[in-house]
């Protein structure tokens, strides 16, 4: 899974762009106005980052969400705010639908020093100070739920039917909705804040390593094999992997395997042992220990709770 810096091109007449997808996040359309749309290939299924901020609204669909060092399952309705240069991608969004909003955030705003160009326009208003905590938290990625998520979807749908100042007004309403979300309706995703803007030299090697992990997590994954794929020494790999992925190699592998195991516990009837070994764990006791540590319950209880929902 290659880590790519996505180039986002805003229309000359707009300070932000509104995107929509109806089946998968590869085939995307940019909604320039209610009557004008441009289709292009999206980057949502590739591990990528960009200096623009983004709100992704998954209206229908489910899969695995990767944001910074966060790896976890999601279902609709799923609303996520992603800060500048935070790596992210969505896995398994086939048969899905949703919206994304992307806009520029000036370097001054990233440092919470200025609110001069919130959407690329001159909006240096005292009222914009309310958004500073939201921008700061966006370096972790934030997931919104409940009425906040429902309101975000409603505003995105309205934006698709409007243009000009009306659309800009709706964007500011969307910002306000997220900034005022009650604590029970938002969750920080990544444990540490991310900004990959300054990391370049070791990116290709880490890209190859992560792609190898995602392609082979059901198999044994000795570190020696991954070091060969990355072409790095053990010490350099350990240091650079943690910088880029936000977590040590072994923890990243376990989280990828656990996410797959959780899905299989809910979706199928295989035994816990079959699921553990089928997802790359070579010891049932180790799987149970890692599972309890991450999920705060054992696999059987997790399956029972999921079935009751």
TrEMBL record:
The keyword Magnesium does not apply. InterPro entries: Homeodomain-like_sf, HTH_AraC, HTH_AraC-typ_CS, RmlC-like_jellyroll, RmlC_Cupin_sf. The keyword Ligase does not apply. Keywords: DNA-binding, Transcription, Transcription regulation. Residues 207-305 form the HTH araC/xylS-type domain. PROSITE patterns: HTH_ARAC_FAMILY_1, HTH_ARAC_FAMILY_2. It holds the Pfam family HTH_18. One of its GO terms (molecular function) is DNA-binding transcription factor activity. This is AraC-like DNA-binding protein.
């Amino acid at each position: 899974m290659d880590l790519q810096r996505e180039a986002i091109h805003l229309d000359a007449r707009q300070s932000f762009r509104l995107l929509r997808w109806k089946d998968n996040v590869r085939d995307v359309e940019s909604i320039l106005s209610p009557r004008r749309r441009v289709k292009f290939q999206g980057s949502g299924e590739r591990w990528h980052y960009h200096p623009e901020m983004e709100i992704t609204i998954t209206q229908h669909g489910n899969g695995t969400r990767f944001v910074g060092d966060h790896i976890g399952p999601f279902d609709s309705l799923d609303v996520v705010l992603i800060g500048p240069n935070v790596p992210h991608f969505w896995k398994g969004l086939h048969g899905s639908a949703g919206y994304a909003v992307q806009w520029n955030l000036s370097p001054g705003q990233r440092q919470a020093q200025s609110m001069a160009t919130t959407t690329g326009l001159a909006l240096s208003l005292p009222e914009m100070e309310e958004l500073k905590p939201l921008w700061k938290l966006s370096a972790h990625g934030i997931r919104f739920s409940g009425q906040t998520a429902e309101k975000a979807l409603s505003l995105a749908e309205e934006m698709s039917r409007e243009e000009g100042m009306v659309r800009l007004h709706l964007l500011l309403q969307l910002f306000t909705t997220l900034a005022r979300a009650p604590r029970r309706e938002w969750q920080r995703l990544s444990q540490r804040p991310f900004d990959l803007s300054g990391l370049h030299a070791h990116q290709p090697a880490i890209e190859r390593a992560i792609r190898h992990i995602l392609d082979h997590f059901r198999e044994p994954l000795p570190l020696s094999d991954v070091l060969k794929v990355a072409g790095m020494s053990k010490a350099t790999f350990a240091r650079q992997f943690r910088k880029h992925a936000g977590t040590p190699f072994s923890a990243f592998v376990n989280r990828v395997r656990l996410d797959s195991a959780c899905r299989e516990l809910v979706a199928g009837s295989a035994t816990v042992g079959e699921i553990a070994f089928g997802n790359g764990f070579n010891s049932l006791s180790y799987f149970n220990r890692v599972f309890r540590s991450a999920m705060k319950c054992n696999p059987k209880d997790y399956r029972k709770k999921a079935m009751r929902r």
